[in-house]
Amino acid sequence: MRPWEFLLSSQASAAPAKLDAAVFKIAGVVVLGAIMSILDITVVSVALPTFQREFDATYAEVAWTMTGYTLALATVIPLTGWAADRFGTKRLYMTALTLFTIGSVLCSTADNIGQLVGYRVLQGLGGGMLMPLGMTIMTRAAGPERIGRLMAVLGIPMLLGPIGGPILGGWLIEAASWHWIFLINLPIGVVALVYSWFALEKDNPEPSESFDFLGMLMLSPGLAAFLYGVSSLPEAGKFTATKVWVPMLIGALLVIGFVLYSFKPKHPLLDLRLLKNRNLSVSTITLAVFTIAFMGAGLLFPSYFLQIRGESTLSAGLLMAPQGIGAMVTMPIGGMLADKIPVGRTVPFALLLIAAGFFTFTQVGTDTSYVLLCGSLFVMGLGMGGTMMPIMTSALKTLTNHEVARGSTLLNILQQIAGSVGTAMMSVILTNQLNESPVIPGVTSPTGDPVTEAGAAIGAQHDPQIAAALPPDLLERGLNFAADSFATTFWVGFILTLLTLIPAFFLPRKRQESHLLDDQGAPAAPIVLH
């Protein structure tokens, strides 16, 4: 049997209806919001050295511009499902856009690092609601049989954000100033708000559920404390540091307490009963393992170009572009196949493509061919386009209209946790590898810490004074050691990608009999815009 015959062998139904103009209007609203929230994370990440200079702050202090945003996301995401049912998705989505836009403008006015962190928290409160609300709006709008292709539209900013962010951030900082990485959200936010007002259907919320205050007191602080500990891991360098294990332990206990409690109330803040749905539970596990590997290693690719190859921020971002191009090629195809073919038959092939591209980076050195690296990133992009959104489509297809908001909230929380864990884990592994480099006798950093050969070699890539002050053979040894450290860390990401194949094996391999259903179990009609 030919491969394409194998993929299509389960098809007995008619082809799904095409996406119409009304649905694409809704997709445009959601994509604008997603672009704002996702690009903002990666744009700010390249501005951290600039913040250090502008505010005369340490790296640990400016890192809070990222950590504060992440903690705000973790706090507000659990509330999104209840609030969407209580107030309506259009009203809440426009509120989230407003908070995010106001927070962005305030960030551009910050005079010190404390103000900037505070305004980033406000941004995060809005940004945390945009993605789960966007998924809910698009899932309801697509109706049965079209959710895969519509989710592929939402996947574009999710996958391209980490690529476009460094390019945009580097260009804005070089061409204008750091203020514009925030001010750019103002015109986008205004357009998105006006667009939302006209494109989204009027809300008809049914506020029948009571708010789970006890659940909120456990889950939101628990997630925030746990992620704070995880986010502190790269700086501390070890799990035994008090600022790491204490908040992680407190957070874990609160989350475990919520899990045990959540099955008692009729309407918990986060409905874990949804995990009784096999498709949802298998999809969330697959997505979590994939996110740990992809989000964690995803930050290492530009770091390799910056630290080992000495590229500028803008050049490193441009070198990552093949990954985005690959994703753009396969994402529409992946969305279409998700509507026609069980994802269990397509996602494993996409994961193998990611693993094949990943393997090249386990062999990197100081002079690995850019053609080979960019080609590998393109292959990884091809796989990415057929992975994340099809998995999400499978997760949401068999939920009722009433469950979609809660299901998308659950997916976003797990993604947030997995992404933070993956990023921290890869950062710690790389840091520990680099710290094993030999120490340069008699040389210390401005803080009095010993300087390793690898650390000096990385610093010399962008500082001519360091390059001139140390022997060339020492810098060569250090750079080779640093490249080997990256390769070792990439091996971890490669193995995790292969491990994703295990839960992916249990994804649906037969056509799902039920898809987006109403609360009585009948196929739900798509939303009609007037």
3D structure, described in words:
This protein is an all-alpha fold and 530 residues long. Helix content is 73%, strand content 2%. It has a two-stranded antiparallel ribbon with strand order 1-2. It is globular.
Q: Count the helices. How many?
A: 24
Shape: globular
**Which structural class should the secondary elements be placed in?**
mainly alpha
Order of helices and strands: HHHHHHHHHHHHHHHHHHHHEEHHHH
Biggest sheet overview: 2 strands, antiparallel
Average of pLDDT: 79
Oligomer: single chain
Question: What is the topology?
Answer:
Layout: H1 3-8, H2 21-45, H3 48-55, H4 59-62, H5 64-87, H6 89-108, H7 113-142, H8 147-175, H9 180-183, H10 185-199, H11 213-236, H12 242-261, H13 278-298, H14 300-307, H15 313-319, H16 321-340, H17 347-361, H18 370-385, H19 388-397, H20 401-435, E1 439-444, E2 450-452, H21 453-460, H22 464-469, H23 472-499, H24 501-504
Antiparallel strand pairs: 1-2
Annotation keywords:
24 helices, globular, two-stranded antiparallel sheet, disordered C terminus, single chain, 2 strands, 530 residues, mainly alpha
Quick overview:
The protein is built from 24 helices and two strands. With about 525 residues, it is mainly α.
